Amino acid sequence: MTSSDRSQAVDVQRSYEIRTYGCQMNVHDSERLSGLLEDAGYVRAPEGADGDADVVVFNTCAVRENADNKLYGNLGRLAPMKTRRPGMQIAVGGCLAQKDRDTIVTRAPWVDVVFGTHNIGKLPVLLERARVQEEAQVEIAESLEAFPSTLPTRRESAYAAWVSISVGCNNTCTFCIVPALRGKEKDRRPGDILAEIETLVAEGVSEITLLGQNVNAYGSDIGDREAFSKLLRACGKIEGLERVRFTSPHPRDFTDDVIAAMAETPNVMPQLHMPLQSGSDTVLKAMRRSYRQERFLGIIDKVRAAIPHAAISTDIIVGFPGETEEDFEQTMHTVREARFANAFTFQYSKRPGTPAATMDGQIPKQVVQARYERLVALQEEISWDENKKQVGRTLEVMVAEGEGRKDGATHRLSGRASDNRLVHFSKPDEEVRPGDVVTVEITYAAPHHLLAEGPVASVRRTRAGDAWQKRQEARTGQPAGVMLGLPKIGVPEPLPAAAAPACGLG
């Protein structure tokens, strides 16, 4: 923030609340919005404020058919609260703001600020300008003004962090509006990425997730087709960085050098989220996905040959326009062959502004629902079978915060294995903090989690756990005890546990 911008910062502490919808990119953007607001003097409202804040920011998603209805419904509920609370401000950003622009203040004239995906750094200035001029400020940049990672960030986790390596997307998938809203791919310089990671590790972060709309296309903007595999290998040389993940890759750009880098770099985790979308070559062509079923399954085979214990997850859309029963059976066949550890399955819904929304052959809802249920049942069976193979294995689990909703009642703690499977384990006698690592033996498997019912074999206290403890003590002014099982909004849990990649990631 420049000195002139800072002079416009709030003169008294005002509270803020951010409501985030959509994908991991939006979650990370909200961390930046929080950082910007706190840098300008705002303070975060208590959890569960539910609109009881001086500034409420909606970071929106535009990919669902009813995304605008959800937004305007939420804005409508805040209108009477704003009337009762003089000086309250409402801001709308994200993909829906980029798409609808002036429509938002026309339909909800009590909104103070509308900003787009390319100029999130302007939020504090726009809020101040709206307050002084007493009129709505709508500012939508058509292209990226500055790479978002240069902005201040309030990270939600002390031990895990998102790191953006690119923004935008060069693909033209017919079901996705994201490229039109976030623009063409722009890559960060490798040195800038690695410098950010090194800074995070110095602060105690031990796990990072490399983030991009099409993460493994990294390098197309800087003219190096092997830039992504080189970046993975460079991450392996950062001392103190224990876990590296990335999301979401595109099969088109998933090359052998990336597989080799994953297999040969010890801190790159044996986990891959690879969006399938459909197993039918006909539907993939209609989607403008540049691979076919054989190519996709070939990638899976190569990954498993190089990394035998890799857990592979995916995204699948059911009921794309024109999908026949034969097309759907090709998807079921692909799922049987790939044996995904987990799958995010979606019923196709029209994304306004996408080519698919106006295609012929829209599938009746009841047909889509029936196919969806068959696919979910098949994947549940496969997920359970794949998890049962983990029984008897000894795994290192990074303790997480907010992963086990029943931990308090069951006297267990929860965390993630290296392959990203969720593990619930018996609470040891010694103190364990989020970010610490435990070694456990798996005794039971369910479709969506593993259980280690025996005693914990070992506890390794880590710098990440120290960072979590330090943050807790700074917040409370008291020495931090064990505070596991408390949900935190936006903690960057690696895929597939994090918010499903709902905005065309991959």
UniProtKB/TrEMBL annotation:
<keyword id="KW-0819">tRNA processing</keyword>
<keyword id="KW-0808">Transferase</keyword>
<feature type="domain" description="Radical SAM core">
    <location>
        <begin position="155"/>
        <end position="386"/>
    </location>
</feature>
<dbReference type="InterPro" id="IPR058240">
    <property type="entry name" value="rSAM_sf"/>
</dbReference>
<dbReference type="InterPro" id="IPR005839">
    <property type="entry name" value="Methylthiotransferase"/>
</dbReference>
<dbReference type="InterPro" id="IPR007197">
    <property type="entry name" value="rSAM"/>
</dbReference>
<comment type="function">
    <text>Catalyzes the methylthiolation of N6-(dimethylallyl)adenosine (i(6)A), leading to the formation of 2-methylthio-N6-(dimethylallyl)adenosine (ms(2)i(6)A) at position 37 in tRNAs that read codons beginning with uridine.</text>
</comment>
<feature type="binding site">
    <location>
        <position position="61"/>
    </location>
    <ligand>
        <name>[4Fe-4S] cluster 1</name>
    </ligand>
</feature>
<comment type="similarity">
    <text>Belongs to the methylthiotransferase family. MiaB subfamily.</text>
</comment>
<dbReference type="Pfam" id="PF00919">
    <property type="entry name" value="UPF0004"/>
</dbReference>
<keyword id="KW-0408">Iron</keyword>
<feature type="binding site">
    <location>
        <position position="173"/>
    </location>
    <ligand>
        <name>[4Fe-4S] cluster 2</name>
    </ligand>
</feature>
<protein>
    <recommendedName>
        <fullName>tRNA-2-methylthio-N(6)-dimethylallyladenosine synthase</fullName>
        <ecNumber>2.8.4.3</ecNumber>
    </recommendedName>
</protein>
<feature type="binding site">
    <location>
        <position position="23"/>
    </location>
    <ligand>
        <name>[4Fe-4S] cluster 1</name>
    </ligand>
</feature>
<feature type="binding site">
    <location>
        <position position="95"/>
    </location>
    <ligand>
        <name>[4Fe-4S] cluster 1</name>
    </ligand>
</feature>
<keyword id="KW-0963">Cytoplasm</keyword>
<comment type="subunit">
    <text>Monomer.</text>
</comment>
<keyword id="KW-0411">Iron-sulfur</keyword>
<keyword id="KW-0004">4Fe-4S</keyword>
<dbReference type="InterPro" id="IPR020612">
    <property type="entry name" value="Methylthiotransferase_CS"/>
</dbReference>
<keyword id="KW-0479">Metal-binding</keyword>
<dbReference type="Pfam" id="PF04055">
    <property type="entry name" value="Radical_SAM"/>
</dbReference>
<feature type="domain" description="TRAM">
    <location>
        <begin position="388"/>
        <end position="456"/>
    </location>
</feature>
<dbReference type="InterPro" id="IPR006638">
    <property type="entry name" value="Elp3/MiaA/NifB-like_rSAM"/>
</dbReference>
<feature type="binding site">
    <location>
        <position position="169"/>
    </location>
    <ligand>
        <name>[4Fe-4S] cluster 2</name>
    </ligand>
</feature>
<dbReference type="InterPro" id="IPR002792">
    <property type="entry name" value="TRAM_dom"/>
</dbReference>
<dbReference type="InterPro" id="IPR013848">
    <property type="entry name" value="Methylthiotransferase_N"/>
</dbReference>
<feature type="domain" description="MTTase N-terminal">
    <location>
        <begin position="14"/>
        <end position="132"/>
    </location>
</feature>
<dbReference type="InterPro" id="IPR023404">
    <property type="entry name" value="rSAM_horseshoe"/>
</dbReference>
<keyword id="KW-0949">S-adenosyl-L-methionine</keyword>
<dbReference type="InterPro" id="IPR006463">
    <property type="entry name" value="MiaB_methiolase"/>
</dbReference>
<feature type="binding site">
    <location>
        <position position="176"/>
    </location>
    <ligand>
        <name>[4Fe-4S] cluster 2</name>
    </ligand>
</feature>
<dbReference type="InterPro" id="IPR038135">
    <property type="entry name" value="Methylthiotransferase_N_sf"/>
</dbReference>
